[in-house]
Amino acid sequence: QVQVVESGGGLVQAGGSLRLSCTASGLPFEDYAWGWFRQAPGKEREEVSCIHPRARSSVKGRFPISRDNAKNTVYLQMNSLKPEDTGMYYCATEGRYCSGSAVNGYWGQGTQVTVSS
User: Would you state the pLDDT for residue 39?
Assistant: First the structure.
């Protein structure tokens, strides 16, 4: 059984930082590209970042993403947060490479990030 669990969200003031974690089990973690997605209120879910299977870290967009295959965990380091970064953050598999979509992937339940002004 595949399980994907996000953590690390919370309430933070603008300019602050959070590090999100996503831990998975029940699948070959190292074979997948992993993406972070944000669902903001009233908006469509969008990809925030993604990391390829063979990469250890990457910067796509504003937030660095990294992975530790030994721990089956992917991270999103969120610095200089803005109120518009508020939303539910999910991680998901994007297949064998970063495609911008995880419609057929494995998803977690999400972790809420709220940035106050």
Answer: 97
**Tokens, residue 11:** 């309430």
Sheet (strand 18-25) strand order: 3-7, 18-25, 73-78, 64-68, 57-59
Mean pLDDT of 66-95: 97
Cα torsion for 90, 93, 99, 103, to the nearest 10°?
-70
Sign of the C-alpha dihedral computed for residues 55, 23, 75 and 60 taken in this order: positive
Question: Is the Cβ–Cβ distance between 100 and 34 less than 8 Å?
Answer: no
Rounded distance between C-alpha atoms, residue 55 and residue 46, angstroms: 22
Q: Which amino acid is at 18?
A: L
- Tokens at 12, concatenated: 């933070």
Calculate mean pLDDT across residues 17-33.
Answer: 97
Task: Give residues with Cβ within 8 angstroms of 117, minimum separation 6.
Answer: 14, 83
Any idea of the CA torsion for 94, 95, 97, 100, to the nearest 10 degrees? Answer: -30
Determine the pLDDT at residue 34: 98
